[in-house]
Amino acid sequence: MTRITVDLDPPVHSTLNLWIARNAATIGPPHVKLAEVIAAMVVTTARYEDVTDTVCSQIRHQRAAASERGERGERGERTEIAKLSAAQAARALAAGTYAAGELRRYWAFAATLALATGLGPAHPPVSTVATRYAERLAGRRVRVGDGVTVSAADLCGPDPVSTRRGTHE
Fold first, then answer.
1. What are the C-alpha distances in Å from 58 to residues 51, 53, 96?
2. DSSP output for 22-55
3. Hey, which bits of 11-168 come out as E strands?
4. Under 8 Å between Cβ of 142 and 155
5. Cα separation of 159 and 128, whole Å?
6. Interaxial angle between packed helices 49-69 and 34-47, expressed in degrees from 0 to 180 and rounded to the nearest 10
7. Distance in Å from the first CA to the final CA of the chain
């Protein structure tokens, strides 16, 4: 047996413990160990393509979010909220859609449906839809400082464009 150390941030650790609590009765005695759960999740992820696809999508989504906000420690204590032009917002929406990979399976289905029926686009008009949203809605870039919380009022107030120290938890 190989021993591996896993570093979990507090939200992930809480989520995993919540999963264990919800499923402990189904698994049955004795007490479920965190290592057992992680090992079973790894085996399941490697064995089933649907699960692997979901995990890969989640990782891409987390990486896209991390690249936008910067790695921990790079952001500093300040939170910055800035207006985006419609073009910048549309680009961020379209790129984020592709980077997260959320619709990857849908696109193959849409293309097959378009081929079979002769209706609809072979590829969804992601950039066109993103542009329409961006033209109707205000776009903001938010970089949240380390240990800072941002409320909806901070984001949607009369003039949310600012550079400020946030509220530390």
1. 11, 9, 13
2. HHHHHH-SSPPPHHHHHHHHHHHHHH-HHHHHHH
3. 78-84, 139-143, 148-149, 162-165, 167-168
4. yes
5. 28
6. 110
7. 41
pTM of the model: 0.46
Query: What is the phi/psi pair of residue 41, to 5°?
Result: -65, -40
Amino acid residing at 143: R
Long-range CB pairs of 166-169, under 8 A, 24+ apart, other chains included = 166/77, 166/78, 166/79
Neighbours of 31 (CB within 10 A): 8
Which residue, among 57, 76, 74, has the nearest Cα to 66 in the 3D structure?
A: 74
> What tokens appear for 75 in the block?
């952001």
Q: Residue 162 corresponds to which amino acid? A: S
Task: Convert the pLDDT of each residue in 95-145 to its tens digit.
Answer: 888 777 767 777 788 888 888 888 888 887 888 988 998 888 888 887 777
Q: Which residue has the tokens 């870039």?
A: 141
Q: Which residue has the tokens 């938890």?
A: 169
Dihedral angle sign, alpha carbons of residues 54, 60, 63, 67: negative
